[in-house]
Design brief:
By secondary structure, the protein is of the alpha/beta class. The protein folds into two domains: 3-105 and 270-296, ATPase, nucleotide binding domain (Nucleotidyltransferase, domain 5); 117-267, ATPase, nucleotide binding domain (Nucleotidyltransferase, domain 5, 2-Layer Sandwich). The protein is built from 15 helices and ten strands. A five-stranded mixed beta sheet has the order 3-2-1-4-5. The longest helix is centred in the C-terminal third of the chain and has 21 residues, at 211-231. The chain starts with a strand and ends with a helix.
Length: 299
């Protein structure tokens, strides 16, 4: 049985999918962070290998014809090939950006746009399995507008200016502070993970009708749609990242705006399977769209 491996590796976790070249998923695995920039090259390679080992289960690594790794941040195949070879995976290894695998997980098209909002936010034009142009993705200081970290930061800003508001109380409880001054000191320490972790709280409050949270979400939607517009790319649009691929009010707002324009965005639910699709595509007689449906289901 000829197999392929697809991996989605980021700063939080590495997810692996093992599938046949005809599009049947035979195993999944998960391990630690696989971003060489944040985890270190050796740790990232070890995490990716562990995820692949788990996904292989009882299948022979020698059956793997090819592997495609979607990596967040700069990376090269040479950083991962030795660790995979140690498992017995000797097929060619390709590394692409996680933006490419996010697009592949939502559409079999040769080109189009992907809008991602998770911890950060970016829109990218993808053509022939490569990113040809981006908008935003500039990091928390200069951009990432509408991202999870942006939502959290806006919530902290609203809280210190509206200390008696219900949202401020929720933010204060999460931060472990009891006054606006303490919130300022807490924020000055730049606890970015904690600030980003406030995004679900903002989304929940917006769902419950909180006026401040709803305004933050509406502004996030405006920023994200503008980022996509700045890209100016024709073709299908794929939505990815926790804020846009999951059930959130940010996703609702972006979908409503784009559908009002006559667009029908697709969703990137499984970038690891998207990576497996990229790996299997040259190895099968199936049409790319047929293989995509087998691996990822109907859009």
């Amino acid at each position: 049985m000829d197999l392929v491996v697809g991996v989605d590796a980021g700063g939080t976790a590495s997810n692996a999918v093992v599938a046949t070249t005809s599009g049947t998923v035979v195993g999944r695995g998960r391990s630690g962070p696989g971003n060489p920039l944040t985890a270190g090259a050796g740790n990232a390679a070890a995490a990716v290998a562990a995820a692949v080992r788990s996904a292989l289960g009882g299948h022979s690594p020698a059956s793997v014809r090819a592997a495609t790794l979607g990596i967040a941040g700069p990376a090269s195949a040479s950083q991962f090939t030795p660790a995979l070879a140690a498992l017995g995976v000797t097929g060619p290894v390709a590394v692409v950006g996680d933006v490419v695998t996010a697009f592949a997980a939502g559409s079999p098209a040769a080109s189009g746009a992907v809008l991602i909002a998770g911890t950060g936010a970016i829109a990218a034009a993808v053509h022939a399995d490569a990113v040809v142009r981006t908008a935003d993705g500039l990091g928390w200081l200069l951009g990432d507008e509408g991202s999870g970290r942006w939502l959290g930061l806006q919530a902290v800003r609203v809280a210190v200016r509206n200390w008696s508001a219900p949202l401020a109380g929720q933010i204060a409880a999460r931060a472990g502070v009891s006054s606006a001054d303490e919130m300022v000191y807490w924020a000055q320490a730049l606890p970015w993970d904690e600030i980003g972790a406030l995004a679900p709280l903002v989304c929940e409050a917006a769902r419950a009708g909180d006026g401040h949270a709803s305004a933050i979400v509406a502004e996030a939607v405006t920023h994200l749609v503008q980022t996509l517009d700045d890209l100016g790319t024709p073709g299908p649009v794929v939505l990815g990242g926790g804020l846009l691929a999951c059930d959130t009010p940010v996703r609702d707002g972006v979908l409503a705006t784009l559908r009002a324009r006559g667009q029908n965005p697709r969703t990137s639910h499984d970038p690891a399977a998207g990576a497996a699709w990229l790996a299997a595509r040259p190895l099968t007689s199936l049409l790319p769209s047929t293989l995509h449906e087998a691996l990822l289901g109907r859009p």
